[in-house]
């Protein structure tokens, strides 16, 4: 399946150029195969795009503006719907593509399909061997996913810092209010002397 992105290479609109760059940049970051099709230099591309955007998705003037996104012959959407899918972590579903194993979208799809997972157990009440095999395969993919490991390491590091700060507070001798006032007065006196 090839994702087709209809673009205007010589658009005078900076808004259109920015939207096109956003779509292409995000597809490249996800390593999604796509074909950029220029409607400014190729009349056939322009006509095909205009004919294949669904009527309900066309603007009031009837002429859809780029970027327009298709999966082969199937219309996916324009920039706004792409952006919404991106915000919802549903770009692969938007594009009509299966999410790669270990991706956030794949994990969400697994949970929707099988129910929540807690301590390696699917909580949907089923116990058959097939579900366990699927869960093990998914857990292996989750273990390989560095995006989950980084936040965990950050949380652990923050907990260590918090623990160290708590120990330092416990080990530090308690200072009474009188002692604090004396230190403050001494500091003020030294500043005046200088």
What this model shows, in words?
There is one protein chain. By secondary structure, the protein is of the alpha+beta class. Helix content is 57%, strand content 12%. The protein has helices at 14-29, 43-52, 79-87, 91-95, 104-114, 129-144, 146-171, 177-193, and strands at residues 3-7, 34-38, 68-71, 74-78, 117-118, 121-122. A hairpin with a 2-residue loop joins strand 5 and strand 6. The radius of gyration is 28 Å and the shape is flat. Mean pLDDT is 78; it is low at 147-151.
Topology:
Elements: E1 3-7, H1 14-29, E2 34-38, H2 43-52, E3 68-71, E4 74-78, H3 79-87, H4 91-95, H5 104-114, E5 117-118, E6 121-122, H6 129-144, H7 146-171, H8 177-193
Parallel strand pairs: 1-2
Antiparallel strand pairs: 1-3, 3-4, 5-6
């Amino acid at each position: 399946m090839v994702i087709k992105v209809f673009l205007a290479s010589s658009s005078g609109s900076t808004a259109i150029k920015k939207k096109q760059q956003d779509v292409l940049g995000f597809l490249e970051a996800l390593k999604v195969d796509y074909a950029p099709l220029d409607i400014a230099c190729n009349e056939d591309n322009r006509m095909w795009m205009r004919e294949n955007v669904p009527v309900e998705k066309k603007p009031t003037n009837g002429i859809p503006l780029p970027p327009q996104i298709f999966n082969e012959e199937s219309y996916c959407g324009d920039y706004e719907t792409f952006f919404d899918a991106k915000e919802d972590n549903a770009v692969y579903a938007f594009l009509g593509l299966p999410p790669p194993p270990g991706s956030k979208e794949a994990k969400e799809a697994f949970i929707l399909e099988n129910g929540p997972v807690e301590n390696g157990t699917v909580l949907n009440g089923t116990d058959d061997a097939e579900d366990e095999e699927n869960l093990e395969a998914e857990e292996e993919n989750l273990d390989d996913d560095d995006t989950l490991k980084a936040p965990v390491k950050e949380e652990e590091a923050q907990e260590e810092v918090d623990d160290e700060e708590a120990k330092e507070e416990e080990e530090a001798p308690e200072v009474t209010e009188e002692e604090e006032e004396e230190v403050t007065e001494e500091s003020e006196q030294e500043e005046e002397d200088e």
